[in-house]
Amino acid sequence: MNPRITFVAAPVLTFAYGVLRILDGLDGVRGPGVAWTTGHLAFVGALVFFAMAFHEMRRLAGRGPLATGLASAGYVGIATLIAQFSIDIVLGFRAADHAEMGVLFDQVQAVPGVQQVVYDFGPLLFFVAQIGLVVQLAAQRRVKAWTPVLVIADVLVPFVDKDLMPLGGACLLVSFLALARVSRESRLADGRHRVVEPAVPASV
Prior knowledge:
The protein is mainly α. The chain has seven helices and no strands. About 35% of the residues are buried.
């Protein structure tokens, strides 16, 4: 897939999730319902594109041990977040109202290891990888210093107020557009410098 699509789709879908989350809470509760399900599906889609983005960022960083380790951690974090959001979607379909959904959440999170892996530790790997990869690219002067600042802003915004997630998505879009440009230039340069082996004449 075109890396530009990847670097645009991830933040746009993150922005969409933030907006749908706000709309879902206008009645004072979040879920179940169309906004709950649609928003969660949007973020699952964003996570798929984030996985592709991590793969490309690893390539841009040189595929070294640090970039590989960060990308691998990011994939694990993405897997746990997809599991978390999938649980949210399933319970949203099963519950008749918000109160029943809360009871179902308590049952799921009571399963040993689920709270720690799916809700606590696992998702942190996604954020660590996201920041780590872009900071490495900035240290290598592949992107401007402001790029990781915007990525960090996107990561921190939900911890301040989750209703600010659309703002975080907008910051991420600006930073990822810069990454898309670097990715395009890198691929064009690789194409120009690729050495084509001369054809060997067939033996007579």
